[in-house]
Every structure is written in structure tokens, then in C-alpha cells.
# Entry
Amino acid sequence: MALGTQLSPTQTLVTFCLWARRHGYSVGEMHGFSAVHPVHAAGSWHFDTDGEFGKAADINKNGPDERDRLIEALNRAQELGLGVIYARDGVAGVSGSHKNHLHVDVGPFGHLGVASFQPTGGGDVLTEAVQRAVHAGPDQVWGTDTDQRVEAVKAASNLMGVGFPHGIAFTQRVVGVPDDGVWGTESRRAHDQVTAAIQRAIGRPANGIWDDAMVAAYNHARDLRNRP
# Structure
């Protein structure tokens, strides 16, 4: 058992590691993604497991833009509330041994080169809020069902041409109205209310309207979290 209290669900770390792998990073030293070698400090989260997955990973991205790419990954990990260690702002403390790779874990400790701090933790609360908005199971995993539901809400917007890729009845169930197959006033009102809830989840003004800025913010959130 690793030292300290686990602040983030293991699945949140898995979400991050899947994002990292999709974007060309190397995910190492994490059960379920790679071998874990006996090179870590005693009590390291690298040795802890939750089902098939580990609770810490080392992220690498070789190349001339290594530092910029690792900082990008660090920012994404912090969006998810995970613990991070990297020599971003200096080399004090444990960050001094993390100059060429990013450490990410589920624990209560972070260090970016100057002083330690406690990560936000709590898991992927943005995904949970989006799931509640679209009447999906709030498990904090943006999987196929969640994605279909949110994409259906987006498709039914004026910006996207009021389309229904999975049928009107499906979109009505997503926005919480009777699925009579008629996209009328009640359905449109519910659609805008669900859109406003999604906007609140991703930090946009809750005006119920899909515009270019909303789509950009949504795409950013979806790119990090989507697990098809």
C-alpha cells in the first residue's frame, strides 16, 4: 500500500494515461500500461494497484519539444485533479529527479520545482457533471454512452443544424422529456437547459446556446476525457 491518502480514483489516472498515449506520449511504470521496475522509492504509488491498473505513471515525450509537451501533459493531468511531479519551475526537492519525465499519480502530493502542494483530487468531476446533465450514469468515465448523449445534444443545436444522428426519441430521452418523436417547444426548451448544464460543467457562460466558443471548450474537455 502506498503512503498517503488516495485523493483521485484510479480510473481518473487511466483516463489521463489513455489521453497521453493517444497524443504520442510514452506511458511507463504503470500496471496495465507497462512494466513496473523496482527503481522507485519504498511506498511509491507505482507499486500499488487497483484491479488491473496501477496508481502512478511516468510520462515521457522525447524530441526537441520535450519540455513543452511535458508541460502540456502536466496541465491536462492537473485539469483532472491528479498529483504531478515535474521540474517545471525549479529543481527543489523531489522535482530534481523529474527533469526529463512527468510523474502522475492518485495521491496527495505534488511538486513542480519550488514547493510541495496538495492536488485537487476528487476524480473527474467535470465528466460527472456532464453525465448528470445528459441523464447518463455518473461514473466519471466519458465512455461511448456519455459521448453519444452529449454529441446528440450538440447535434440538435441551431449551430449544428438541428440534427438527430440517433433519432429524435433518443435525444428527447437525453434531455429528459417524453420520447414522442416530435421535436417541439418542450424538447427545445429542455435541450437549452441541458446545454446550460453542460456549459456550467465545462466553465462556460450558461446561456443554453452552442456557439463556436462553446464548441471549442467542449472539444477540449472531450479530447482529454473521451474513452471510446
